[in-house]
Amino acid sequence: MSETEQQRLKRQYDEYMALPAEQRAAPPADYGAPAPVAKGTRIRLTQMGPDPSPLEVGETGTVEGGNAGQLYVKWDSGRTLMLLPGVDEWEVIE
To answer: Could you tell me the pTM of the whole model?
Structure first.
């Protein structure tokens, strides 16, 4: 039986969290830098990194703010899950 996308992402997340903290990806050195996308920008998710409860690729939302390490998004589905630049991928749609 092949693993579903949800199972694969959960496995990747568990493997990542099992790593010693010093081996996990470090946040950007300038965590206080501005977000890579301006507040109010509409985006579409194109890929999501390991997350125990991921969004579906193709979901759209509006950027609410953030910094170099996190992008706060209000998704049209009602969720408010943030994206991680360098881990998650998106495209600007408006």
So the answer is: 0.65
**Number of domains the chain is built from:** 1
C-alpha span between 76 and 64 (Å, rounded): 12
Domain residue limits at 59: 5-92
Query: Which two three-digit tokens encode residue 16?
Result: 């990542």
The token pair at 88 is 């998650």
Query: Which two structure tokens, joined as six digits, stand for 14?
Result: 């568990």
Residue type, 90: W
Residue 13 is given by DSSP the state H
Q: How many CA atoms lie within 13 A of 48 on its CB side?
A: 23
Closest CA to 62 of 48, 83, 47: 83
Residue 12 sits at φ, ψ, to 5 deg, of -60, -40
Low-confidence ranges of the chain (pLDDT < 70): 1-3, 5, 9, 23-33
What is the CATH number for 74?
Answer: 2.30.30
**Residue 84: what pLDDT?**
86
